[in-house]
Amino acid sequence: MNNDQVLFTKEMKKDYTILIPTMLPMHLKFVETIYNYYGYNTELLTTSGKEIADTGIKYVHNDTCYPAILVIGQFIHALQSGKYDVNKTALLLTQTGGGCRASNYISLLRKALKKAGLSQVPVISFNLSGLEKQPGFKISLPILWRLAYGVVYADLLMLLKNQCSPYELIKGEAEQKANMWTEKLCREMTSKKFISYKKVKQNYKAIVKDFASIKMLKSDKIKVGVVGEIFVKYSPLGNNNLEDFLLSEGAEIVVPGLIDFCLYCVYNGLVDTEFYRVKKFNALINKFAYRFITKKVNDIRNAITENSDFMPMGDFEHTRTLTKGILSLGVKMGEGWLLTAEMIELADMGVNNIVCTQPFGCLPNHIAGKGMMKPIKENRPDVNIVAIDYDPGASKINQENRIKLMLSNAKFAKENTTNQKVKK
Fold first, then answer.
1. Which domains does the chain have, with CATH numbers?
2. What is the number of other CB atoms lying within 10 angstroms of the CB of residue 171?
Protein backbone atom coordinates (compact mmCIF):
# COMPACT_ATOMS: atom_id res chain seq x y z
CA MET A 1 0.00 0.00 0.00
CA ASN A 2 1.19 3.53 -0.84
CA ASN A 3 1.99 5.56 2.28
CA ASP A 4 -0.17 8.41 0.92
CA GLN A 5 -3.18 6.13 0.49
CA VAL A 6 -6.06 6.76 2.89
CA LEU A 7 -7.86 3.55 3.78
CA PHE A 8 -11.62 3.30 3.98
CA THR A 9 -12.00 1.70 7.42
CA LYS A 10 -14.84 -0.27 8.99
CA GLU A 11 -15.57 2.71 11.25
CA MET A 12 -16.04 4.95 8.21
CA LYS A 13 -18.81 2.72 6.87
CA LYS A 14 -21.24 4.09 9.49
CA ASP A 15 -21.09 7.80 8.69
CA TYR A 16 -19.26 8.32 5.39
CA THR A 17 -21.02 9.14 2.11
CA ILE A 18 -19.56 7.20 -0.82
CA LEU A 19 -19.85 9.03 -4.14
CA ILE A 20 -20.24 7.05 -7.39
CA PRO A 21 -19.46 8.72 -10.77
CA THR A 22 -22.06 8.80 -13.51
CA MET A 23 -22.17 6.35 -16.43
CA LEU A 24 -25.25 4.13 -16.81
CA PRO A 25 -28.02 5.68 -14.66
CA MET A 26 -30.29 2.59 -14.47
CA HIS A 27 -27.44 0.16 -13.88
CA LEU A 28 -25.83 2.32 -11.21
CA LYS A 29 -29.19 2.81 -9.49
CA PHE A 30 -29.07 -0.90 -8.70
CA VAL A 31 -25.49 -0.57 -7.41
CA GLU A 32 -26.45 2.38 -5.21
CA THR A 33 -29.56 0.65 -3.81
CA ILE A 34 -27.84 -2.68 -3.14
CA TYR A 35 -24.91 -1.16 -1.28
CA ASN A 36 -27.21 1.06 0.76
CA TYR A 37 -29.14 -2.09 1.73
CA TYR A 38 -25.90 -3.53 3.13
CA GLY A 39 -25.30 -0.56 5.40
CA TYR A 40 -23.35 1.81 3.20
CA ASN A 41 -24.39 5.35 2.30
CA THR A 42 -23.72 5.62 -1.42
CA GLU A 43 -24.82 8.41 -3.75
CA LEU A 44 -24.76 8.43 -7.55
CA LEU A 45 -23.52 11.72 -9.01
CA THR A 46 -25.67 13.17 -11.78
CA THR A 47 -23.92 16.50 -12.36
CA SER A 48 -23.09 17.56 -15.91
CA GLY A 49 -21.98 20.59 -17.90
CA LYS A 50 -18.75 22.15 -19.12
CA GLU A 51 -17.62 22.83 -15.56
CA ILE A 52 -17.04 19.09 -15.01
CA ALA A 53 -14.41 18.86 -17.76
CA ASP A 54 -12.98 22.25 -16.74
CA THR A 55 -12.50 20.99 -13.17
CA GLY A 56 -10.89 17.80 -14.45
CA ILE A 57 -8.41 19.68 -16.64
CA LYS A 58 -7.50 21.88 -13.68
CA TYR A 59 -6.29 18.88 -11.67
CA VAL A 60 -5.35 16.35 -14.39
CA HIS A 61 -3.04 16.83 -17.38
CA ASN A 62 -5.07 17.59 -20.51
CA ASP A 63 -3.39 14.72 -22.40
CA THR A 64 -4.93 12.28 -19.94
CA CYS A 65 -7.66 9.92 -21.13
CA TYR A 66 -10.92 11.89 -21.52
CA PRO A 67 -13.01 9.58 -19.28
CA ALA A 68 -10.44 10.12 -16.50
CA ILE A 69 -10.72 13.90 -16.89
CA LEU A 70 -14.51 13.69 -16.58
CA VAL A 71 -14.66 11.21 -13.70
CA ILE A 72 -12.01 13.00 -11.66
CA GLY A 73 -13.54 16.36 -12.57
CA GLN A 74 -16.97 15.20 -11.42
CA PHE A 75 -15.59 13.93 -8.11
CA ILE A 76 -13.62 17.10 -7.29
CA HIS A 77 -16.46 19.32 -8.50
CA ALA A 78 -18.78 17.53 -6.06
CA LEU A 79 -16.32 17.80 -3.17
CA GLN A 80 -15.83 21.54 -3.83
CA SER A 81 -19.57 22.21 -4.15
CA GLY A 82 -20.11 22.49 -0.41
CA LYS A 83 -22.81 19.82 -0.53
CA TYR A 84 -20.64 17.20 1.17
CA ASP A 85 -18.51 17.11 4.30
CA VAL A 86 -15.11 16.43 2.78
CA ASN A 87 -14.00 14.81 6.03
CA LYS A 88 -16.90 12.34 5.86
CA THR A 89 -16.89 11.51 2.14
CA ALA A 90 -15.25 8.71 0.15
CA LEU A 91 -15.04 8.09 -3.61
CA LEU A 92 -15.75 4.81 -5.44
CA LEU A 93 -14.01 4.05 -8.71
CA THR A 94 -13.99 0.83 -10.76
CA GLN A 95 -10.79 -0.89 -11.88
CA THR A 96 -10.68 -3.77 -14.38
CA GLY A 97 -7.01 -4.49 -13.79
CA GLY A 98 -6.25 -4.57 -17.52
CA GLY A 99 -3.49 -2.80 -19.44
CA CYS A 100 -5.71 0.20 -20.20
CA ARG A 101 -4.89 3.52 -18.56
CA ALA A 102 -8.20 3.17 -16.73
CA SER A 103 -6.41 0.87 -14.29
CA ASN A 104 -4.36 3.91 -13.25
CA TYR A 105 -7.34 6.23 -12.65
CA ILE A 106 -7.10 5.45 -8.94
CA SER A 107 -3.56 6.86 -8.74
CA LEU A 108 -4.51 9.83 -10.92
CA LEU A 109 -7.49 10.56 -8.69
CA ARG A 110 -5.41 10.45 -5.49
CA LYS A 111 -2.83 12.75 -7.08
CA ALA A 112 -5.59 15.18 -8.14
CA LEU A 113 -7.15 15.13 -4.66
CA LYS A 114 -3.78 16.00 -3.14
CA LYS A 115 -3.39 18.88 -5.59
CA ALA A 116 -6.89 20.12 -4.67
CA GLY A 117 -6.11 19.97 -0.93
CA LEU A 118 -8.43 16.98 -0.42
CA SER A 119 -5.91 14.22 0.28
CA GLN A 120 -7.89 13.12 3.36
CA VAL A 121 -10.67 11.73 1.12
CA PRO A 122 -10.47 7.90 0.82
CA VAL A 123 -10.63 6.38 -2.67
CA ILE A 124 -12.19 2.92 -2.90
CA SER A 125 -11.25 0.63 -5.76
CA PHE A 126 -14.19 -1.46 -6.96
CA ASN A 127 -12.52 -4.44 -8.60
CA LEU A 128 -12.64 -8.22 -8.79
CA SER A 129 -8.92 -8.58 -9.50
CA GLY A 130 -7.55 -8.17 -5.97
CA LEU A 131 -5.81 -4.92 -6.96
CA GLU A 132 -6.66 -3.04 -3.76
CA LYS A 133 -8.46 -4.00 -0.59
CA GLN A 134 -10.26 -1.65 1.76
CA PRO A 135 -11.14 -2.87 5.28
CA GLY A 136 -14.49 -1.06 5.31
CA PHE A 137 -15.70 -1.97 1.80
CA LYS A 138 -16.54 -5.50 0.70
CA ILE A 139 -17.77 -7.21 -2.45
CA SER A 140 -19.28 -10.28 -0.79
CA LEU A 141 -21.00 -13.11 -2.66
CA PRO A 142 -24.53 -11.93 -1.65
CA ILE A 143 -23.70 -8.44 -2.91
CA LEU A 144 -22.14 -9.80 -6.10
CA TRP A 145 -25.20 -12.01 -6.70
CA ARG A 146 -27.53 -9.02 -6.44
CA LEU A 147 -25.26 -6.83 -8.57
CA ALA A 148 -25.18 -9.46 -11.33
CA TYR A 149 -28.97 -9.53 -11.52
CA GLY A 150 -29.04 -5.75 -11.35
CA VAL A 151 -26.89 -5.58 -14.51
CA VAL A 152 -29.07 -8.16 -16.27
CA TYR A 153 -32.30 -6.36 -15.34
CA ALA A 154 -30.91 -2.96 -16.36
CA ASP A 155 -29.71 -4.29 -19.73
CA LEU A 156 -33.19 -5.66 -20.44
CA LEU A 157 -34.85 -2.36 -19.48
CA MET A 158 -32.37 -0.34 -21.56
CA LEU A 159 -32.93 -2.54 -24.61
CA LEU A 160 -36.72 -2.36 -24.43
CA LYS A 161 -36.79 1.37 -23.70
CA ASN A 162 -34.60 2.07 -26.73
CA GLN A 163 -36.84 0.01 -29.01
CA CYS A 164 -40.03 1.71 -27.78
CA SER A 165 -39.04 5.37 -27.33
CA PRO A 166 -38.89 6.37 -31.03
CA TYR A 167 -42.33 4.91 -31.78
CA GLU A 168 -44.42 5.47 -28.64
CA LEU A 169 -47.71 7.36 -29.08
CA ILE A 170 -47.53 8.74 -25.55
CA LYS A 171 -44.14 10.42 -25.32
CA GLY A 172 -42.11 9.40 -22.29
CA GLU A 173 -44.11 6.22 -21.60
CA ALA A 174 -41.13 3.89 -22.19
CA GLU A 175 -38.90 6.00 -19.93
CA GLN A 176 -41.62 6.00 -17.28
CA LYS A 177 -41.96 2.21 -17.42
CA ALA A 178 -38.19 1.76 -17.22
CA ASN A 179 -38.02 3.97 -14.11
CA MET A 180 -41.00 2.21 -12.55
CA TRP A 181 -39.47 -1.23 -13.07
CA THR A 182 -36.09 -0.05 -11.80
CA GLU A 183 -37.68 1.14 -8.54
CA LYS A 184 -39.76 -2.03 -8.22
CA LEU A 185 -36.82 -4.37 -8.86
CA CYS A 186 -34.55 -2.42 -6.51
CA ARG A 187 -37.13 -2.85 -3.72
CA GLU A 188 -37.48 -6.54 -4.51
CA MET A 189 -33.74 -7.19 -4.60
CA THR A 190 -33.20 -5.50 -1.26
CA SER A 191 -36.04 -7.18 0.58
CA LYS A 192 -35.24 -9.77 3.24
CA LYS A 193 -37.37 -12.32 1.45
CA PHE A 194 -35.31 -14.71 -0.70
CA ILE A 195 -35.91 -14.18 -4.42
CA SER A 196 -35.75 -17.42 -6.40
CA TYR A 197 -34.54 -17.57 -9.98
CA LYS A 198 -38.03 -18.72 -10.93
CA LYS A 199 -39.26 -15.32 -9.75
CA VAL A 200 -36.48 -13.59 -11.68
CA LYS A 201 -37.57 -15.33 -14.90
CA GLN A 202 -41.16 -14.34 -14.18
CA ASN A 203 -39.93 -10.75 -13.90
CA TYR A 204 -38.25 -11.01 -17.31
CA LYS A 205 -41.54 -12.10 -18.84
CA ALA A 206 -43.58 -9.44 -17.03
CA ILE A 207 -41.18 -6.67 -18.09
CA VAL A 208 -41.27 -7.73 -21.74
CA LYS A 209 -45.08 -7.94 -21.77
CA ASP A 210 -45.38 -4.55 -20.06
CA PHE A 211 -43.25 -2.83 -22.71
CA ALA A 212 -45.05 -4.75 -25.47
CA SER A 213 -48.29 -3.16 -24.24
CA ILE A 214 -47.03 0.32 -25.19
CA LYS A 215 -49.02 1.68 -28.13
CA MET A 216 -46.59 2.51 -30.91
CA LEU A 217 -46.60 4.07 -34.36
CA LYS A 218 -46.00 1.72 -37.26
CA SER A 219 -43.01 3.30 -38.96
CA ASP A 220 -39.60 2.16 -40.08
CA LYS A 221 -37.03 4.45 -38.51
CA ILE A 222 -33.33 4.33 -39.18
CA LYS A 223 -31.56 2.14 -36.63
CA VAL A 224 -28.28 3.50 -35.29
CA GLY A 225 -25.91 1.38 -33.25
CA VAL A 226 -23.65 2.97 -30.62
CA VAL A 227 -20.33 1.31 -29.79
CA GLY A 228 -16.97 2.46 -28.46
CA GLU A 229 -14.92 2.92 -25.31
CA ILE A 230 -17.13 1.92 -22.39
CA PHE A 231 -17.42 5.33 -20.69
CA VAL A 232 -18.11 7.52 -23.74
CA LYS A 233 -20.29 4.77 -25.18
CA TYR A 234 -22.68 4.76 -22.21
CA SER A 235 -22.25 8.01 -20.29
CA PRO A 236 -24.36 11.03 -21.35
CA LEU A 237 -21.65 13.15 -19.72
CA GLY A 238 -18.98 11.49 -21.86
CA ASN A 239 -20.80 11.55 -25.23
CA ASN A 240 -22.65 14.87 -25.00
CA ASN A 241 -26.05 13.19 -24.57
CA LEU A 242 -25.62 11.22 -27.79
CA GLU A 243 -28.68 9.02 -27.29
CA ASP A 244 -30.97 12.02 -26.74
CA PHE A 245 -29.56 13.63 -29.88
CA LEU A 246 -30.11 10.53 -32.02
CA LEU A 247 -33.64 10.20 -30.68
CA SER A 248 -34.35 13.85 -31.53
CA GLU A 249 -33.14 13.15 -35.07
CA GLY A 250 -35.75 10.40 -35.44
CA ALA A 251 -33.42 7.41 -35.08
CA GLU A 252 -33.88 4.18 -33.15
CA ILE A 253 -30.87 3.59 -30.90
CA VAL A 254 -29.31 0.15 -30.53
CA VAL A 255 -26.73 -0.06 -27.74
CA PRO A 256 -25.07 -3.36 -26.79
CA GLY A 257 -25.60 -4.10 -23.10
CA LEU A 258 -23.14 -3.89 -20.21
CA ILE A 259 -23.45 -7.64 -19.76
CA ASP A 260 -21.51 -8.10 -23.01
CA PHE A 261 -18.63 -6.10 -21.55
CA CYS A 262 -18.76 -8.27 -18.40
CA LEU A 263 -18.67 -11.44 -20.53
CA TYR A 264 -15.81 -9.94 -22.53
CA CYS A 265 -13.77 -9.43 -19.36
CA VAL A 266 -14.52 -12.97 -18.15
CA TYR A 267 -13.80 -14.53 -21.54
CA ASN A 268 -10.47 -12.66 -21.79
CA GLY A 269 -9.39 -14.62 -18.70
CA LEU A 270 -10.00 -17.84 -20.64
CA VAL A 271 -8.12 -16.46 -23.65
CA ASP A 272 -5.15 -15.56 -21.43
CA THR A 273 -4.99 -19.14 -20.18
CA GLU A 274 -5.12 -20.48 -23.73
CA PHE A 275 -2.51 -18.08 -25.10
CA TYR A 276 -0.10 -17.84 -22.18
CA ARG A 277 -0.85 -20.92 -20.03
CA VAL A 278 -1.20 -18.80 -16.91
CA LYS A 279 -3.75 -18.53 -14.09
CA LYS A 280 -5.23 -21.98 -14.68
CA PHE A 281 -7.17 -21.91 -11.41
CA ASN A 282 -8.64 -18.53 -12.35
CA ALA A 283 -9.66 -20.08 -15.67
CA LEU A 284 -11.92 -22.51 -13.82
CA ILE A 285 -13.63 -19.61 -12.04
CA ASN A 286 -13.91 -17.68 -15.31
CA LYS A 287 -15.38 -20.72 -17.06
CA PHE A 288 -18.04 -21.08 -14.37
CA ALA A 289 -18.83 -17.35 -14.45
CA TYR A 290 -18.99 -17.38 -18.26
CA ARG A 291 -21.46 -20.29 -18.34
CA PHE A 292 -23.52 -18.77 -15.53
CA ILE A 293 -23.87 -15.36 -17.21
CA THR A 294 -24.48 -16.69 -20.73
CA LYS A 295 -27.31 -18.86 -19.38
CA LYS A 296 -28.94 -15.81 -17.79
CA VAL A 297 -28.63 -13.86 -21.04
CA ASN A 298 -30.14 -16.77 -22.99
CA ASP A 299 -33.08 -16.79 -20.57
CA ILE A 300 -33.65 -13.10 -21.28
CA ARG A 301 -33.38 -13.68 -25.03
CA ASN A 302 -36.01 -16.42 -24.75
CA ALA A 303 -38.30 -14.18 -22.67
CA ILE A 304 -38.11 -11.52 -25.39
CA THR A 305 -38.66 -13.79 -28.41
CA GLU A 306 -41.45 -15.81 -26.75
CA ASN A 307 -43.45 -12.82 -25.48
CA SER A 308 -42.92 -10.02 -28.00
CA ASP A 309 -41.66 -8.89 -31.39
CA PHE A 310 -38.76 -6.97 -29.88
CA MET A 311 -35.26 -7.64 -31.20
CA PRO A 312 -33.30 -9.49 -28.47
CA MET A 313 -29.73 -8.72 -27.49
CA GLY A 314 -26.99 -10.60 -29.31
CA ASP A 315 -25.74 -14.06 -28.41
CA PHE A 316 -22.24 -13.63 -26.98
CA GLU A 317 -21.30 -17.18 -27.96
CA HIS A 318 -21.74 -15.98 -31.54
CA THR A 319 -20.36 -12.48 -30.92
CA ARG A 320 -16.97 -13.81 -29.83
CA THR A 321 -16.50 -15.59 -33.18
CA LEU A 322 -17.13 -12.55 -35.38
CA THR A 323 -13.59 -11.13 -35.47
CA LYS A 324 -12.06 -14.33 -36.84
CA GLY A 325 -9.76 -13.44 -39.72
CA ILE A 326 -9.94 -9.74 -38.86
CA LEU A 327 -8.68 -9.26 -35.31
CA SER A 328 -7.19 -11.62 -32.74
CA LEU A 329 -8.94 -12.30 -29.44
CA GLY A 330 -5.62 -11.34 -27.86
CA VAL A 331 -6.34 -7.68 -28.71
CA LYS A 332 -8.08 -6.48 -25.57
CA MET A 333 -6.95 -2.91 -24.84
CA GLY A 334 -9.42 -0.07 -25.41
CA GLU A 335 -12.34 -2.54 -25.54
CA GLY A 336 -10.27 -4.46 -28.10
CA TRP A 337 -11.87 -7.22 -30.12
CA LEU A 338 -15.27 -6.64 -28.47
CA LEU A 339 -15.54 -3.21 -30.13
CA THR A 340 -14.89 -4.71 -33.56
CA ALA A 341 -17.19 -7.67 -32.87
CA GLU A 342 -20.05 -5.40 -31.78
CA MET A 343 -19.85 -3.42 -35.02
CA ILE A 344 -19.98 -6.63 -37.07
CA GLU A 345 -22.80 -8.00 -34.91
CA LEU A 346 -24.86 -4.84 -35.37
CA ALA A 347 -24.38 -4.98 -39.14
CA ASP A 348 -25.46 -8.64 -39.19
CA MET A 349 -28.57 -7.69 -37.19
CA GLY A 350 -29.52 -5.15 -39.87
CA VAL A 351 -28.23 -2.14 -37.93
CA ASN A 352 -26.00 -0.80 -40.70
CA ASN A 353 -25.55 2.70 -39.29
CA ILE A 354 -23.07 2.86 -36.43
CA VAL A 355 -21.58 5.62 -34.30
CA CYS A 356 -18.20 4.60 -32.90
CA THR A 357 -17.50 6.77 -29.84
CA GLN A 358 -13.82 7.24 -29.02
CA PRO A 359 -11.82 9.26 -26.47
CA PHE A 360 -9.41 11.25 -28.64
CA GLY A 361 -6.30 10.11 -26.80
CA CYS A 362 -7.07 6.38 -26.62
CA LEU A 363 -4.85 4.79 -29.31
CA PRO A 364 -5.96 1.16 -28.67
CA ASN A 365 -9.60 2.25 -28.98
CA HIS A 366 -8.85 3.95 -32.30
CA ILE A 367 -7.16 0.78 -33.60
CA ALA A 368 -10.02 -1.51 -32.57
CA GLY A 369 -12.65 1.02 -33.67
CA LYS A 370 -11.67 3.41 -36.47
CA GLY A 371 -8.86 1.11 -37.60
CA MET A 372 -11.25 -1.77 -38.21
CA MET A 373 -13.76 0.22 -40.27
CA LYS A 374 -12.09 -0.62 -43.60
CA PRO A 375 -11.99 -4.43 -43.16
CA ILE A 376 -15.56 -4.41 -41.84
CA LYS A 377 -16.77 -2.41 -44.85
CA GLU A 378 -14.93 -4.73 -47.23
CA ASN A 379 -16.95 -7.66 -45.89
CA ARG A 380 -20.19 -5.72 -45.35
CA PRO A 381 -20.37 -2.97 -48.00
CA ASP A 382 -23.72 -1.63 -46.76
CA VAL A 383 -22.39 -0.69 -43.31
CA ASN A 384 -22.24 3.05 -42.59
CA ILE A 385 -19.83 3.81 -39.71
CA VAL A 386 -18.81 7.20 -38.36
CA ALA A 387 -16.09 7.50 -35.71
CA ILE A 388 -16.61 10.42 -33.32
CA ASP A 389 -13.80 11.68 -31.10
CA TYR A 390 -14.61 13.05 -27.65
CA ASP A 391 -12.25 15.19 -25.61
CA PRO A 392 -12.35 18.52 -23.72
CA GLY A 393 -11.53 20.51 -26.85
CA ALA A 394 -13.94 18.73 -29.22
CA SER A 395 -16.80 20.76 -30.66
CA LYS A 396 -20.26 19.37 -29.94
CA ILE A 397 -21.57 21.05 -33.09
CA ASN A 398 -18.94 19.35 -35.25
CA GLN A 399 -19.74 16.00 -33.62
CA GLU A 400 -23.45 16.39 -34.26
CA ASN A 401 -22.91 17.60 -37.83
CA ARG A 402 -20.89 14.49 -38.64
CA ILE A 403 -23.62 12.31 -37.18
CA LYS A 404 -26.25 14.24 -39.17
CA LEU A 405 -24.24 13.54 -42.34
CA MET A 406 -24.22 9.84 -41.49
CA LEU A 407 -27.99 9.91 -40.96
CA SER A 408 -28.43 11.76 -44.24
CA ASN A 409 -26.45 9.05 -46.06
CA ALA A 410 -28.53 6.41 -44.29
CA LYS A 411 -31.79 8.03 -45.42
CA PHE A 412 -30.50 8.30 -49.00
CA ALA A 413 -29.48 4.63 -49.04
CA LYS A 414 -32.84 3.63 -47.59
CA GLU A 415 -34.77 5.60 -50.22
CA ASN A 416 -32.70 4.04 -53.01
CA THR A 417 -33.39 0.55 -51.68
CA THR A 418 -37.11 1.31 -51.46
CA ASN A 419 -37.19 2.69 -55.02
CA GLN A 420 -35.40 -0.37 -56.39
CA LYS A 421 -37.92 -2.66 -54.69
CA VAL A 422 -40.82 -0.66 -56.18
CA LYS A 423 -39.34 -0.89 -59.70
CA LYS A 424 -39.02 -4.66 -59.39
1. 12-139 (3.40.50), 221-256+314-423 (3.40.50)
2. 9
Give the 3-state DSSP-derived string for 216-277, with helices as H, strands as E and coil as C: ECCCCCCEEEEEECHHHHHCCCCCCCHHHHHHHCCCEEECCCHHHHHHHHHHHHHHHHHHHC
Per-residue pLDDT tens digits for 414-424: 776 655 555 55
What is the model's pLDDT at position 134? 85
pLDDT digits (tens, 9 = 90+) for 338-355: 999 999 999 999 999 999
What digits encode the pLDDT tens for the residues 13-32? 999 999 999 999 899 999 99
Most distant pair of Cα atoms in the chain: their distance: 75
pLDDT in tens, 55-109: 999 998 877 888 889 999 999 999 999 999 999 999 998 876 666 666 678 888 9
pLDDT in tens, 393-409: 888 999 999 999 999 98
